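Lecture 7 notes: from sequence to structure.

We start with a single chain of 280 residues. Read the sequence below before looking at the structure.
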Amino acid sequence: MPSVNKHPRIRLVIADIDGTLITKQKLLTQRSMQAVEKLREAGIIFGVTTGRPPAGVKMFVNSLPHMRFIAGFNGGVIVNREFRVFKENLLDAVTAKEVVQVMLEHGLDAWLYTDKDWYVRDPNAYRVDRESATVQFPPKTTSSFESLYAKGVAKIVGVGQDYDAVGRCEKNVQTRFAARTSAARSQPFYLDVSHPNANKGEVVMAASDYFIIPVQEIATIGDMPNDVTMFKKSGLSIAMRNAHEKVQQSASLVTSSNDEEGFAEAVDNFILPGIGVSAA
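Now the structure, written as tokens:
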């Protein structure tokens, strides 16, 4: 793997949340909070990108006072820390309807997110309760998504206990809607489908434009296949040890797992030393 010293000075860090910034228990550790403070002290901007809706990140805002932006829905809706929207990439109604149909044909359940709300057809379906606990707000229940498509869909999630079926659906959606969507699994049981510009690679580009920082001076940290798009766009990419081997191979460097303070170690061992700052 390349030495971190071969990379230019890092001026902005973008981190995934689940599987990266927080533990398996969905906890933000003291050391991770301290790592974000170290970035601020070094003059490095910090933001997050996640498949969660922006509202599903509210529980971390007070603990991360120097987090500058939240790219929810993998970039479908980007907000500042006061949750003011400054960029949206929403699916068109026809595409959203067709994607839901494909998910159902593969035996997956479908969840639909607008910019503000989360809708499910069955509140007792697989992982609805777990997701509610994770994002700390409940979904709205509807018997049909028909009236919602035209309101602007930020993300559709295909959910399934059969991971192979989720994988087959991912490939089908990627092939069938290649020009109209961005589709990737955020977890083995979740297939996230959003606008083609709503992917983490585009988040890197949007942050680069907004903060006027070259992509070569941006570092990204993640653990899932949908993080690879931001790895490809950033100057320094860091995969978590809990990531799949292919995800690790897509990154410049690999840090410890999210349950072993991998985010903080990436900051201390790769980012700060790479710009001549001691992590001590």
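Residues 129 and 170 are 23 Å apart (CA to CA). Keep this in mind for problem set 3.
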